[in-house]
Each structure stands twice: as structure tokens, then as C-alpha cells.
Automatic annotation (TrEMBL):
SUPFAM superfamilies linked: PLP-dependent transferases
Organism, scientific name: Methanosarcina vacuolata Z-761
Cofactor annotation: pyridoxal 5'-phosphate
GO-annotated molecular function: 4-aminobutyrate:2-oxoglutarate transaminase activity; identical protein binding; pyridoxal phosphate binding
Region (Disordered): 1-20
Protein name listed in UniProt: 4-aminobutyrate aminotransferase
Amino acid sequence: MAQEKTEEFEKAQGVEKPGKNKAMEAGQYFDFFEHEAGMFNTVGPKAREIIEQDCKITSACTARPYPLVVDSAKGSVIRDIDGREYIDLVAGIAVMNAGYSNPEVKAAISAQLEKMTHCGYGDFFAEPPVKLAKKLSELSGYSKVFYCNSGTEAVEAAIKLAFWKTKRQGLISFYNSFHGRTLGSLSLTCSKARQKEHFPALRTAHSHYAYCYRCPFKLEYPSCGIECAKELENLIFRRELSPMDTAAVFVEPVQGEGGYIVPPPEFHREVRQICTDNDVLLVADEVQAGCFRTGPFLAMENFEVRAEISCFAKALGGGLPLGAMLADREIMDWPQGVHSNTFGGNLLASAASLASLEFLEKENIEDRVKELGSQMKQRLGELQENFPCIGDVRGLGLMVGVEIVKPDKSIDPIRRDRILREAFKEGILLLPCGDSVIRFSPPLVITDEELDSGLEKFQKALKKAGI
Ligand SMILES: Cc1ncc(COP(=O)(O)O)c(C=O)c1O
């Protein structure tokens, strides 16, 4: 493969110098899959045809790492349009926690479909969103629920609630964070400069997250004393954004898009304490880590920390679009008309969500996630011994990241993407995150056999990627 072409592809994926890049046009993805990566030899003629049409007609702003054209799915296995099967080790980006075509979720959707799909829940009342709210309250301990349709909307709602509640307009989030792409949540997002280029922002300061593998302070845990969390107070509040102007600190329990970064437990406790001491709200963005992905329903429970507000989406809808912002009554006490939307609490999505959560609870999923997560980390740790390009294996529950590095431990996104494409050819679906990380976030119901087979294929992909 021509080196320049590979680099061009990397650029299109967002690993580029801000301001100096030229985005790859959608049609160029087609050419890349066709000529350079040989990916169309893997998929069939129908996939090729659909991708050709897609590239002509849909916006080029989304980045696709390989030419998968899905058709149907069951459990953890996706069948593409030409009949080729893949083990999905990313669950449709941490969405299909209860598995594809889960019979209980399907039955709940079908039953609701027979009755009514949409009612304008912002204007009327209905039973499914109320039943779901009770379940969310039971699982989370929060007493109030606000519904929307996506992660970015849940974060926007939290920004507005924090502004409304505190009458302040400053925000804080962390480097490498991802909170969404609409303009409010994008102000918090600090993952890739490309995502923010040319867009205006709300007043937001960024602080360092506990990325221990690449400590921003070049310190070692635990002797570091969690210097990164203390930066909030020692630097941000003193020099950049007064707590008197700060409505809330937004934090992901485990950073997702930024590289599957798991902080030590003291990090969140320290951040919590600083927020309390300075009378600033803490918002947990549980969009990717929540809904049992890391074991407990709230990923923050792993750290014994409670935020005033928590945001959910992705897995919440059981495969349908649904977001939610949760808080206690004393926080979510804004009056009628301050915030709303058309589709939040959609009847089908609420029915799917409730069925999915009930299914996961019934399966005792927290224990299963912890067990499978530690098995997965152990297996990937064993691979690390034989593949020096694996610099770090980290994770919480079934949110596991593998950081790909050069011999000097610097990032190696080109090799990372080569591994991803080889993995696709082997029949597993993986996705990139961070600068040089491969993420594993399979359906929580993945079987032992599927996981074994998936990891064997990953090992083959590592070999084929020429390491
Ligand atoms: C932690 C986190 N917050 C917010 C979002 C945005 O969610 P959505 O894509 O549904 O807008 C994401 C998406 O990846 C996420 O991982």
C-alpha cells in the first residue's frame, strides 16, 4: 500500500495536524477501499454497489474505517448485505448491550408498534415513558428524568439545566473528552481539533484527565497524588475560570472516544470534592460508559462518586434513539416551558429501553460484565507479551482499550488502522478511538465462544498487520 495514500486515509480519520488537512471526499473513500486497501476483495458486489451510491449522495462528514454494509444481526453477530458474517466487538458503538434482535426487546417493540409509535410526549402523557422513568429512577437513585433522543442532546440538556440552576455560564471539561457535536456539547468536547474547526463555542475551560499511560505531568500513579484532578483547583479556578462563573464540570466516568481511558478511583473522588468545595455542579456523561457497560448501571458507581446530573443515550434505547438526563428533584426544578423537544420519550423507544434494561437486570449482567471484562483484559494482556506494538491494555467491565504504539512508545495510528482493516477481513468489527487506540465494547450478552473466536481473529489480524 502506498505510504502517502495510507497517510491520506489517516488524515481523513482525524489524525492530522489541525488547519493543515484536506478532508478526504466521500468518493475518495470509495477509491481507497477499491484500490489501496483492497477492501472490496473482502466484501461482495452488493456492498460495493451500495457504498458507491452512498458516497455519491450522503454527506462526506462521517468517517468509515472499512466497507461494512449491514443487513441483519442476531446476538453479537452481524450479517452483511452479501451474507458475510462478522462478530461485532463494538456493539454498534456501545449501543446493543442486550444484543441484536433480542427477543424480549423485539416483543416489546412489536407490542407497542401495534398500538402507537409516537404521541408528542412533550405535549401529552403516556404510560411507556413513565414506566421507563420509574425503572431509571430505581436503577440510578435519581428522582427526575428528562427525555431526548441522543447523547449530544442529553449533554445539551445538562448544560442548560446547569446554567439555569446556577445562573452562571462557564463550563469545565477535560482534554480527550467527547460529549457530542452540537454546539454546546462541542464546546465541552476536546478530542480532535477537526471536530471543532471553524465552529464557535460556549465559555469552556479544559483540564487534564487521568491518562496514566501518558501522564500529562510525567508522574507515576499513586505517588502522583492525582495532580491532574488538582489542576482544576490549582490552575483553572485560579487563573482561567472562577468558580463564581462556573456552572458545572462535565466528566466521562471512563473516557470513550478520547481513547478508552480509565482513571484511578481517586481521580473522580478528587474532582467530586473540588466541585463540592467550590459549589460547582458535577455532571457525569454516562452516554458511553453507562447502562451496565462497565458493570453497574451507573459507571460512576465504580468510583463511589455521585454526580448531581447524569447523561445517558446510546445503549439506553435498546437499539432505538433515546437519550435521558437524570438528576434529583432539588436540581431539576426548572419550570414548564424552559426546555423540551418533539421526540423525547418516544413510545417505541421507551418500550425498547424498558425491555432492554429489564432483560439486562434479569441476566444479572453486572456480574457477567465484570467476569467477561477481566477475561478479556487478561487475554489481551497475554497478546501484549507477544506483540510489542500493544503498548497498553486497559478497561473497566466490557469497555476495553488497546493502545498501539511504535517501539519508542509514541502513538502509531497508521499501524492501528492497518490492524483494524485486517480485523475486518478476518470477520470482526472493531473501531478506533483516541490517537492510537482500538476499542472493544461488545454486546454485554456476547457468548464465551464468540469472545474466544473474536480474540483469536484479533490475534490473526495483529500478525497479518505485519508486526
Ligand atoms: C461520552 C459521550 N457523550 C456524548 C456522546 C454523543 O452522543 P450522540 O452521538 O448520541 O450524540 C458520545 C458519543 O459517542 C459519547 O461517547
